Amino acid sequence: MSDTHDTSYIKIKRTLTISALIFILSSQSTLAQSFRDKDWNVNLWANCGMPKRVNGTKPARMVKIEGDKKLMFSLEKGQVGPCSTDNMERHSAPYWERAEVRQRDHLKLGKAYNISFEATFMEGFKGRQETFFQIHGWNGDCHAYPPVMMHFSGGTLNIWALRGVDQEAGKEWMSSSQGSHRSVQKRIVKINQLIGRTTLFEIQFDTRKGGNLSVYVNGEPVVENTSVEYASCAKPHMKMGIYRPGGSNNKKSAVMFDDVNVRVIE
């Protein structure tokens, strides 16, 4: 083999080696951002990534409590979220803090779902609009608002349903066509009642005849058969973690999730 052929062969081999290394590192990075457990029936992943660590602590990580794996989130003041809209001033906040994951697939329209999970709030959740669960509708070029948001404001549970959505919804972000959120909870739930305790949440999201929402906390109805709307181009999907407006008064919040399951209601 000539020197020219030797050089070409070495270059090709080196290129293939580098490509393989990039693929392996990319795969490991993707796997590192995935979260699952044997008692869940849904895989979760950080589609925007995670904010920078504070004091060496990962914002989202699997922990083992008495032999049972749980997904733990912790968010410190100033941990700006990694999504493209988080470092923007919007909705009366200079930026948005986020450590959040979403399901890999979607909730198909025309079906009804029961979404259940256990949440153990460890600390915090006394700031403004500290969201721990969403059913979002964003889908590529469809900039849809979330049909359902669940958060604590001032330590009180708020459950929002999207209303007033029109045919143009999803085409332009932050427009009046997107609709607006309304508080629909009928029962007062305080974070002080839940801190340090395992709380069971059940969300029934029915899109068979328009949108319908019911929410149960430890078996008690908090929202019952209320209407919820979504953009026609939306692909609803579940998100969970901590997502909140940035601000000088924010303190650390932490929550653990387990037994995350999404089932079709027949």
Explain the overall architecture.
By secondary structure, the chain is mostly beta strands. The protein has a single domain, classed as Jelly Rolls (Sandwich). It contains 2 helices and 15 strands. The strands form 2 sheets. An 8-stranded antiparallel β-sheet has the order 1-2-5-14-7-8-9-10. Strands 3-4-15-6-11-12-13 form a 7-stranded antiparallel β-sheet, with no helix packed on it. A hairpin with a 2-residue loop joins strand 12 (212-217) and strand 13. The longest helix is centred in the first third of the chain and has 30 residues, at 3-32. The protein is globular and about 45 Å long. The relative contact order is 0.22. Residues 1-32 have low confidence and may be disordered. One of its GO terms (molecular function) is lyase activity. This is Polysaccharide lyase. It comes from Thalassobacter stenotrophicus DSM 16310. Residues 1-32 form the signal peptide. Keywords: Lyase, Signal.
